[in-house]
Design a protein that fits this description.
This protein is mainly α and 280 residues long. It is built from twelve helices and two strands.
């Protein structure tokens, strides 16, 4: 036990330096004012009031939540059939498909997003393909659709892998029992497979929604600066404007929103798990 506690010290130090300390600094800046390079240590809610009384910032927050919800819904609709297909494959083919899904993730996300600029730009591959159907003049880049496409492309693997894992862990004897009791394929899926895979769906929603709502470089690259999300506002406050206090306040607001979402998702997962045990 003593040896185990000693091995934990490097991890604890890393957590303190890389996670706890930055969070404390953000919390400090969020509730203080700065002027002439001297920090005023007096408590203030000025930055939070500024955010919630400015319609532009609230509009950006709503837009960020909206694009994150759309991304999550699309990832669920696309990820569940793919994850279901992979889970039903043989062991050899399952490993192959998982490799295909994870292979793009070996490349840096920023590089992958840059690649979409060339694909969606004027005269690019996508526009040339649409030209075959008389839609060559369609604007693809720097739109909400391009930002949504970039989000789904980057975060879809997280949804697929979580759903696939949940389906693979499912007891296959339950499916056999369902068929023995006279249930058809749809009834078996709806009453057995889908409820037992909800834990994977919930985990996938967490891994997609949280980074999507705070993403800043995807809308910056594929939105061309015309599609501003809350992550871009935070980046702008820290790097361009230099308002660290206001940027920290927005970061704290987003942290609270994320924690509330995680708590709600956890409760839903626990409720589904409780229902599964009652049925069992």
């Amino acid at each position: 036990m003593k040896k185990f506690s000693q091995l934990a010290w490097p991890y604890l130090i890393w957590v303190i330096l890389m996670i706890l300390l930055p969070m404390l600094l953000i919390l400090f800046y969020a509730f203080t004012n700065s002027g002439n390079g001297i920090i005023n240590f007096s408590f203030t809610l000025e930055h939070f009031i500024k955010f919630f009384t400015d319609q532009d910032f609230l509009l950006v927050l709503w837009r960020s939540l909206e694009i994150a919800i759309k991304t999550t819904i699309i990832c669920v609709l696309l990820g569940y059939p793919i994850g279901y297909f992979i889970a039903r494959s043989s062991d050899k083919m399952r490993n192959f498909w998982v490799l295909v899904i994870t292979l793009p993730m070996w490349i840096n996300m920023l590089v992958r997003t840059y690649a979409w600029i060339g694909i969606l730009s004027d005269g690019g591959i996508a526009q040339s393909f649409l030209g075959l159907f008389g839609l060559g003049d369609t604007e693809l880049l720097y739109t909400e659709g391009s930002v949504l496409l970039g989000m789904v492309y980057n975060f879809l693997p997280f949804m697929i892998l979580q759903i696939n894992t949940a389906l693979c862990k499912m007891d296959k004897s339950l499916l056999e029992a369902s068929h023995d009791l006279g249930a058809n394929r749809f009834q078996t899926f709806w009453r057995v497979t889908f409820p037992l895979s909800l834990s994977g769906v919930v985990s996938g929603i967490t891994l997609v929604f949280l980074p999507a709502v705070s993403s800043f470089f995807i809308p910056k690259l594929l939105g061309g600066g015309s599609y501003f999300l809350i992550g871009n506002v935070i980046e702008n406050q820290f790097i361009t404007v230099g308002e660290w206090n206001f940027g920290s306040a927005i970061s704290m607001i987003m942290a609270v929103i994320m924690m509330v979402c995680m708590y709600a998702i956890r409760k839903i997962d626990e409720r589904n798990a409780g229902r599964g045990k009652e049925k069992a």
